Structures are given as structure tokens and as C-alpha cells.
Automatic annotation (TrEMBL):
Residues 94-191 form the Aminopeptidase N-like N-terminal domain. The lineage of its organism: Bacteria, Bacillati, Actinomycetota, Actinomycetes, Micrococcales. This is Aminopeptidase N. Residues 542-867 form the ERAP1-like C-terminal domain. InterPro entries: Aminopeptidase_N-like_N (IPR045357), Aminopeptidase_N-like_N_sf (IPR042097), ERAP1-like_C_dom (IPR024571), Pept_M1_aminopeptidase (IPR012778), Peptidase_M1 (IPR001930), Peptidase_M1_aminopeptidases (IPR050344), Peptidase_M1_dom (IPR014782), Peptidase_M4/M1_CTD_sf (IPR027268). Belongs to the peptidase M1 family. GO terms for molecular function: alanyl aminopeptidase activity. Keywords: Aminopeptidase, Hydrolase, Metal-binding, Metalloprotease, Protease, Zinc. Its EC number is 3.4.11.2. It catalyses: Release of an N-terminal amino acid, Xaa-|-Yaa- from a peptide, amide or arylamide. Xaa is preferably Ala, but may be most amino acids including Pro (slow action). When a terminal hydrophobic residue is followed by a prolyl residue, the two may be released as an intact Xaa-Pro dipeptide. SUPFAM superfamilies: Leukotriene A4 hydrolase N-terminal domain, Metalloproteases ('zincins'), catalytic domain. Residues 238-450 form the Peptidase M1 membrane alanine aminopeptidase domain.
Length: 882
């Protein structure tokens, strides 16, 4: 039995078959019974074959009870191998019928079932990309075999049941049950079909197109225990703004009838673009106070998925090689809609610092791949949802728009939709449409340079000045950053790409850095003169890629670096700050800027940065630098100093502001890390006392008189309790008391993390054993236990589990790929106090498991690269050199 569908097998099926209609009947009558592990699934497939032959349909099920082809029964025992049902076809029309018992999922793949501990209510939803529809019903689980789908779902009568299309009829087959028959869908791929069922709460609205009068019924749904926090009005506002924007830019009516958005528990992704029924993680329903950055992120996800209704759903990639195109396009268009159609008109700022940061990191791993990747099978596709596919692709599309012009880009997109509606297409089809709209640009050469190579373009300036500081010569230099742990400028240095970007000069004027001039640069060589700079007085800071149209790592020159380190918060425009922070972050990560210099600059900015997206990203970068890159001898004084300036900034912050909340979270994260500090200084003691004070405040109350305006909600209380548990200052009784106050699903997960965070061998043993051995645990429960296990990294009590990790590593891949991914990534012993030995054990495992699944090896290679980088940077001297 194999569950790994190859591209060759998919191509063979699509050459043999076309599919007209799936009629799917799911019986979820017993969904409320925790002991019911399976549900009945019956599929009728109407298909056409071009010739007589043998083929198979995809199905992962507990058992198959019936298989019939053209009214001829087949023996299920011989036809079904656990992942496929094999059957013959005759030339012309065929009808296949399969009845199976499929398994409810606890991994977020297939039909996931969740029992809410807040009220014991039940929730089910499907998640299929790339090929998990086969876990729910028999189908040809590949994107190019599009068809129409007609779903019928039998469920308890108090369930809300949804699918891609509206309900056509409802009947009562038995007492306490309702049978929901949905209208036939439009033509779509199997991986974007969707069914949800359970005690979901609902809000509704209607969108009307201002010019055409087209109406779209809107719905927002979430579990009952989150209903009061649904914030449907805000979600509907963004939804309507997005529909206005995409109708205007795509000039193609929304093609899927209704538009439901459902927020579901224990979701593996941020969201999924199922037409007419978009699924989101319900962490986007904000039970506790969040900053503007979280609302911006939610709006961005909503708009990303909406862009897919056209690019991805209406026109679908023929195979997963072009996964990047649909995701990158949605990422770019979601960002554009965010900035141009919503209140978040500075949305590109977070993209520049956060999304591109992900891409820069991913593109320097040894496992990096061209944007146009070779995807030989669906297992490779599963692991290709990465920073190249999403963030680098979107960044490169942003450069493409600058290269051809936005009007041409949009016109090419509109032609692409019209030419391939309800069908599948390839990158070549998209580029052909763009070339027709932008005939003056060589897009084939552009695609070869940007889409078929690896590595990050790295740009720097070489400047010569006279004795008065006037620039006498200036060149921009392009090289391609290498991959792996060796730093920049090695592998792939011969790759030269075309760039269209801006250069800006800034000078200090009073307390701000003011832009004095900009220069357009359009070049496709390794070096290019910048004649506009000659004769100009040398600015205090020169910033390449001003405005962030390009995907490049910018190397600041020495003068600009020193200005940035001292004055990065003095830029009035948050985009300028984001780009300079990005340059400093990359320099630190590549070993070209001492970690201590970065942390000093961060400390200076702490009370000055007002952009929530920049603040959130910098906090994560600071914690990574502290945990992974800072030489050991600097950790104690750095943590001490960071706690001190964080306290000062919190005390000075505006009551009730985003800055106040972000600083409180930063402080608690630093308190947690004080478990590794060898002395108890006043800032460390004050931090621990703050955590205790937060825990003493009743949930929902203001932390007066010390920090008026700071509401101590459930999230902050759990954060404080986990920090105290890590320090050994809270025990099981404290955790149980907190759980009494917060008996929600998120409360249970926080409690599991806090329990595992305690610095006790028995706590670590229980968490590790449960995560690795208890196959009844859900995806999020496993991650919660691992988070607590690893949170007190660098302590001797976790050392016995280093060898255990490598002993179990091979067996992890026998679990579902999502659970396996979490175990491999989240348990990797970067937390060990013996990093060099872990590195050696990783190398030994890779060498002795050359035939391990490529996806598993890829994860481990990337983890190894992060660890090697950590070892190298920690060993660096005070000047940041190796």
C-alpha cells in the first residue's frame, strides 16, 4: 500500500479519465459519541474514459464494504489496498460506487472532530490540501481532474451543517437526525471541497455589488463558546471591502454563489480557500485583547483566501509544481487589497519585515528550491507550503508588478481568468497572458532569472567621496547570497537578476531622519553605476529598495549601519523603519553584525516604536537572538538590560495602548527566560514579581495602580503562570486553580503547557511520553505538551531525552504527516546544553537514514542548519566575526 500519489500516476489518470459528477453521502449521525471512531461514506462517481483500461481511485478508510463499477460488484478485499480502490473502466461513460467506513481525524487532516471542553459541544470540519479528501470520500485526489460535487450529510438535528454550495433540501430520516442535501457545486478540484458540521454559532449579512447589483449571502461561523467574541461586523466589513476590490481589479463576478467563513478549532493552517466555505483557524477569533497587528493579520488572511476564489479555485494549477503561483498570487493580492481597500493602509510594512523575513531565511537553507519547484509526488507537495512558495513568491510577484507595471499585470490577470475559467492552467499560461499585456518586457528571461534559480539577491552600494564628503563615484553591486550555514555570497554567486527599485538618501534633521532624495535604478548586471549619486553630499543613510518593491537582502554600508543602529526609530515612515530593521536582522543572522549591537538598537527603540506589526516582529527576533545567537557570556547582562528597559518602557506607555500590551507580553517572555540566568538581579526579581502580581489580578481586571489600562485577561494570566511554572514558582495546584477560571479549549492547552514547563524530571517525562506515544492526542494537544517540555531549554533535566528523540525519530514518520512534522520540528533538541553533540547526532542519523522519506530528511536538514548557525554565532567574538 502507498499513500504517496506521484505526478506520473496523476498524469496517467488524467489522460485516461474525465469526471462529470461526484455524489457523496456522509453519515455523521453518531458524531457526538466519543467512542464512535468511524462514519459511513458513500460515493457515486460519474466519469468518462477514453479507452478500456485499469485505474484506481484514492481512498484512505478503515474499511470498504462495497465496490461497484457499471453495476458490476467487485470484491472489496481485493479491490481496496488501504489507500486506493482499483477498478476497470470501459471506453465512454462509467459509474463507480463505493461505500466505506472512514475515520474521524485528530490530526487536522480529513474530517477533524473536536469536543469543546468549555461546554462539551461537538465540531467537525474537513481539511484536504493537498490530498486528504480521500480520507473522507473516494475521489481522484489530484487538482486537474475537476468535477461537480453534490454532498448529502446526515447529522444530529441540532448541528449546523455547511458545504461549498447552499442547502437544496432538508429531511428527517430518523428521530433526532436531519439529512442535508446540498446543491451541486460548480466545477472544482477535490482538495477544495468542504463539509462542516456541529454546534456552530452563526451571523449573516448580504453583500451587494455597487455597480452590477450582484448579491452574495455572507455568513460567519464559530463554535458556541466563542460566539460572544465573534466580531462578525468587523469580519463582514473586511469581506465586503475585499469583494469590492477584487470585482474592480479582476472584472469577473464572484463565481461561487454564497460566501461563508467558518472559524474552526485545532486547525493546522491559517485558512483554506474552499469556494463558498472558507475555513480559518479560530485563533483568529480574539477572546482576549490583541494589538492592531492581530486585526491586520486577520484581515490579510481573509483577503488572501478571497483572492483564491478566482486564482486557485476558478482557475486551478494543473499540478502541485505551480502551488507557488496560486499561493504567491493570493499573498500579493491579499497584501494589495489590505493596503488599498481597508483601514490597514500600511499593511505592506508588516509584509516587508515579517513575511519577507520568512522568505530570506527559507531561501538560505540547504533545502531551498526554485520558486518553480519540482514536485514529483504529493508528499513533496505537503512539505512545500514554505517560505519560498508563499513569501518569496509573493515578494517576487511584487517585483514583477514593478517590472511590468500594475496596469499590465492586472490586465494580464483578467485575460488569464477569462481564458481558463473553471479549468486548470500552468505558469506558462499565466506568463503568456502577461506578455500580451506587457509586450515590451522579456518575461521568459525574467522568469528564468527569478523563478528557476535559488538564493537571495544581495545588493550593496560602493561609494567614493572626496574630503568634503561629496560622492565622486557610486555603484550598486549584486550578488546571490549562499545557502546553508556558511553565510552570504558563496553558493549561486553567478546568478544575476533584473531589478527595478529605488534608492533613498536620508539625513538627520533634529530628532528625525528625513528623506532628501530618491533615485530610480533599473539594471540586470552584477554591477551598475548610479550616476545620480555623483556630486551629492554623502547622506547619513543610504537605503536601497526604498518602498520595498524588490526581493533583495540589502547590505547597508558602514556609515548607514552606524546611523541605523543609533537612530532607526527616527524614521517617520514605518516602511523605512521596517526596511532598515530587515537589513540589520539579516546582517545579524549572517554573522556580519554583532548580536549585542542589534539588541542595543532594539533596547533603544523599545519605548519609541509605535507600529504594532514592527513591534511584534522585533520582539520575536529579539527572543530568537537571545535564545539562539547570543554568545553565552552576554546572556545574563543582555537579559538583565532588556528587562530593565522593558520595565521603563511599560511604565511610560500610554494606558490601554497597543504598546502597553506588547511590552507586557515582552516582559513575560523575558521573565520566562530568566530561568537560565545565573544571578538574581533587581530587574530579574522585579520581572518575577510582576508575573506574580499579574496572576493575583482577577481575569478581566485592570492592573491598577501600577499599570493602569493594562487589562489582565486570560492570555496574560496564562503567560504569567507559564513563566512562573518554568521558574519553579508555580505548581499543579496553581495550574488547576487557573483552569477553574478558564475551562475553555485554549485554557486546557495553556494548562498542559504550564504543567510540562515545570522544572521537574517527572513533568518532562510525562510530556515527552505523551507527545511521542499517545496516538489519541490531537495535533494541538501534542504541540501544547511539547511547548511546555521545551520552554525551559538549557536545563540538565531535559538532557536524557536527546538520545530518545533520535531513537524515536524514524518512527515519527509512521504517524500522519502533520503529527510527524510537529514531532520532528518541535521536539528537535536545539534546547540541549550539548549543541555540538546534537549536531553530530543529527549528521549521524542523516547518514544512516539516506533512504528516509525526503520530506522527513528535509525537515531535519533545516533544523540542523538552524542549530549550526546558532553554534557559529554563539562562538563569535564581541565584534561579530567568526
Amino acid at each position: 500500500m502507498t499513500t504517496n500519489l506521484t505526478r506520473a500516476q496523476a498524469r496517467s489518470r488524467s489522460e485516461l479519465l474525465s469526471v462529470e459528477l461526484y455524489t457523496v453521502d456522509l453519515d455523521l449521525s453518531a458524531a457526538t459519541d466519543p467512542d464512535a471512531e468511524t462514519f459511513a461514506s458513500t460515493t457515486i462517481v460519474d466519469l468518462d474514459a477514453v479507452r478500456d483500461g485499469e485505474t484506481f481511485i484514492d481512498l484512505i478508510a478503515d474499511s470498504v464494504s462495497s465496490v461497484t463499477i457499471n453495476n458490476e460488484p467487485l470484491n472489496p478485499r481485493t479491490a481496496f489496498d488501504g489507500a486506493r480502490v482499483h477498478f476497470p473502466v470501459t471506453a465512454g461513460a462509467n459509474r463507480l460506487e463505493i461505500t466505506a467506513a472512514c475515520l474521524y481525524s485528530r490530526s487536522g487532516e480529513g474530517l477533524h472532530r473536536y469536543f469543546d471542553p468549555a461546554d462539551d459541544k461537538v465540531y467537525l470540519y474537513t481539511q484536504y490540501e493537498p490530498t486528504d479528501a480521500r480520507r473522507v470520500f473516494a475521489n481522484f485526489d489530484q487538482p486537474d481532474l475537476k468535477a461537480r460535487f453534490q454532498f448529502t450529510v446526515t447529522a444530529p438535528k441540532d448541528f449546523s451543517v455547511l458545504s461549498n454550495s447552499p442547502v437544496a433540501s432538508v429531511s428527517a430520516p430518523a428521530q433526532g437526525l436531519l439529512r442535508h442535501e446540498f446543491a451541486v457545486t460548480g466545477v472544482q478540484s477535490s482538495y477544495i471541497t468542504c463539509v462542516t458540521a456541529g454546534h456552530y454559532a452563526t451571523a449573516t449579512d448580504t453583500y451587494t455589488h455597487p455597480q452590477t447589483g450582484q448579491t452574495i449571502e455572507l455568513g460567519v461561523h464559530t463554535r458556541a463558546s466563542l460566539a460572544e467574541h465573534m466580531d462578525a461586523e468587523s469580519i463582514f466589513t473586511v469581506t465586503k471591502q475585499g469583494l469590492d476590490f477584487f470585482h474592480e481589479h479582476f472584472d469577473y463576478p464572484y463565481p461561487w454563489g454564497k460566501y461563508d467563513q467558518i472559524f474552526v478549532p485545532e486547525y493546522n493552517l491559517g485558512a483554506m480557500e474552499n469556494p463558498g466555505l472558507v475555513t480559518f483557524t479560530d485563533s483568529l477569533i480574539f477572546r482576549d485583547k490583541v494589538t492592531r497587528a492581530s486585526y491586520e493579520a486577520r484581515a490579510n488572511v481573509i483577503l488572501h483566501e478571497m483572492a483564491h476564489m478566482w486564482f486557485g479555485d476558478l482557475v486551478t494549477m494543473a499540478w502541485w509544481d505551480d502551488l507557488w503561483l496560486k499561493e504567491s498570487f493570493a499573498d500579493y493580492m491579499g497584501g494589495l487589497a489590505l493596503a488599498e481597500a481597508t483601514e490597514f493602509d500600511d499593511g505592506w510594512v508588516t509584509f516587508a519585515l515579517q513575511r519577507k523575513g520568512w522568505a530570506y531565511r527559507q531561501d538560505q537553507y540547504p533545502t531551498t528550491h526554485p520558486i518553480v519547484a519540482d514536485i514529483p509526488d504529493v508528499e513533496a507537495a505537503k512539505l512545500n507550503f514554505d517560505g519560498i512558495t508563499y513569501a518569496k513568491g509573493a515578494s517576487v510577484l511584487k517585483q514583477l508588478v514593478a517590472y511590468v507595471g500594475q496596469d499590465a499585470f492586472m490586465e494580464g490577470t483578467r485575460q488569464y481568468f477569462r481564458a481558463h475559467e473553471f479549468g486548470t492552467a500552468t505558469l506558462t499560461d499565466f506568463l503568456t497572458a502577461l506578455e500580451a499585456a506587457a509586450p515590451d518586457r522579456d518575461l521568459a528571461a525574467w522568469a528564468d532569472a527569478w523563478l528557476k534559480t535559488t538564493g537571495v539577491s544581495e545588493l550593496s552600494l560602493e561609494i567614493e567621496t572626496d574630503d568634503e564628503g561629496t560622492i565622486t563615484a557610486a555603484e550598486v553591486v549584486q550578488q546571490n547570497s549562499g545557502t546553508g550555514t556558511s553565510g552570504a555570497g558563496e553558493a549561486g554567486a553567478e546568478v544575476v537578476r533584473p531589478h527595478r527599485l529605488q534608492l533613498a538618501g536620508f539625513v538627520r534633521k533634529g530628532s528625525v531622519l528625513t528623506r532628501t532624495q530618491t533615485w530610480e535604478i533599473d539594471f540586470d548586471s552584477a554591477r551598475a553605476e548610479v550616476p545620480g549619486l555623483v556630486g551629492v553630499a554623502r547622506p547619513d543613510l543610504l537605503l536601497l529598495n526604498y518602498g520595498d518593491d524588490d526581493f533583495v537582502k540589502v547590505r547597508l554600508d558602514d556609515t548607514s549601519t552606524q546611523t541605523a543602529l543609533r537612530h532607526v526609530s527616527r524614521f517617520a515612515d514605518p516602511m523605512d523603519r521596517a526596511l532598515v530593521w530587515s537589513a540589520l536582522t539579516n546582517a545579524m543572522r549572517d554573522g556580519l553584525l554583532p548580536v549585542t549591537d542589534f539588541l542595543t538598537a532594539y533596547s533603544r527603540s523599545l519605548s519609541r516604536e509605535t507600529h504594532a506589526g514592527i513591534s511584534a516582529t522585533l520582539m520575536r527576533t529579539m527572543l530568537t537572538a537571545l535564545d539562539e545567537w547570543l554568545p553565552e557570556r552576554f546572556v545574563d547582562p543582555a537579559l538583565d538590560g532588556l528587562l530593565g528597559v522593558s520595565f521603563d518602557a511599560l511604565a511610560a506607555s500610554k494606558p490601554g495602548s497597543d504598546e502597553q500590551l506588547a511590552l507586557a507580553r515582552t516582559l513575560l517572555s523575558l521573565v520566562l527566560r530568566s530561568a537560565k540566568v545565573h544571578t538574581s538581579t533587581p530587574p530579574v526579581r522585579a520581572g518575577r514579581e510582576l508575573a506574580q502580581a499579574m496572576l493575583a489580578v482577577e481575569a478581566g481586571s485592570d492592573m491598577r495602580p501600577d499599570f493602569p489600562g493594562l487589562t489582565i485577561d486570560h492570555a496574560l494570566r496564562w503567560h504569567a503562570l507559564t513563566a512562573l511554572a518554568t521558574l519553579g514558582w508555580a505548581d499543579v495546584c496553581d495550574i488547576d486553580e487557573a483552569l477553574v477560571v478558564d475551562q475553555t479549549g485554549s485554557g486546557r492547552l495553556h494548562a498542559l503547557t504550564a504543567e510540562a514547563a515545570r522544572p521537574l524530571p517527572i513533568a518532562k517525562q510525562r510530556a515527552f511520553t505523551a507527545a511521542t506515544s499517545d496516538e489519541s492526542l490531537s495535533n494541538d494537544v501534542i504541540s501544547a505538551r511539547i511547548a511546555g517540555f521545551t520552554v525551559s531549554s538549557g536545563l540538565p533535566i531535559t538532557e536524557p531525552f536527546v538520545e530518545e528523540y533520535f531513537r524515536l525519530l524514524e518512527g515519527f514518520w509512521e504517524r500522519s504527516i502533520e503529527i510527524a512534522r510537529r514531532l520532528v520540528n518541535e521536539l528537535y533538541p536545539s534546547w540541549s546544553i550539548r549543541p555540538d553533540e546534537v549536531l553530530a547526532m543529527t549528521d549521524a542519523w542523516l547518514e544512516s537514514h539516506a533512504d528516509a522519506p525526503a520530506a522527513q530528511r528535509r525537515l531535519l536538514i533545516e533544523l540542523r542548519d538552524d542549530l549550526a548557525r546558532s553554534i557559529r554565532l554563539r562562538a563569535a567574538g564581541g565584534d561579530g566575526k567568526h
